[in-house]
Design brief:
By secondary structure, the chain is of the alpha/beta class. Helix content is 31%, strand content 22%.
């Protein structure tokens, strides 16, 4: 089984891109963990509040703007993912530099497009 993808900044609102990403990831068979400000469920995935104790995360895909990422930086680094995807609007030079220094791949792309094009 694939190592899980952690979606940070999700919601139960199907009009939100993070929610659409969960739907696409699940449809393609990926194991998904979701973090949002409110608990709920999206496509069979339980959305939990920050900061759950988890391990073995392969990919983190961010749907948070720079100003909302501050409290997540140490958490993200501590999970030691293989890569972090900065979706449009989530770019953050400071966090990106910290990730690269830790040997974590930084990807500037759209998770939905990557999944659609088979580049995920």
């Amino acid at each position: 089984m694939e190592k899980p993808t952690l979606v940070i900044g999700t919601s139960t609102n199907p009009g939100r891109y993070a929610n659409m990403a969960i739907k696409s990831l699940v449809a393609k068979g990926f194991q998904v963990i979701a973090i949002g400000l409110r608990e709920g469920t999206a496509y069979g995935v339980r959305i939990v509040k920050p900061f759950p104790e988890i391990s073995g995360v392969d990919t983190i895909t961010l749907y948070l703007g720079r100003k909302n990422q501050a409290s997540y930086q140490d958490y993200i680094l501590g999970l030691k993912p293989r890569r972090v995807i900065f979706n449009p609007g989530s770019e953050n030079d400071e966090l990106e530099e910290r990730l690269e220094q830790a040997g974590i791949d930084v990807v500037h792309d759209c998770t939905l497009v990557m999944l659609h094009q088979g580049r995920y």
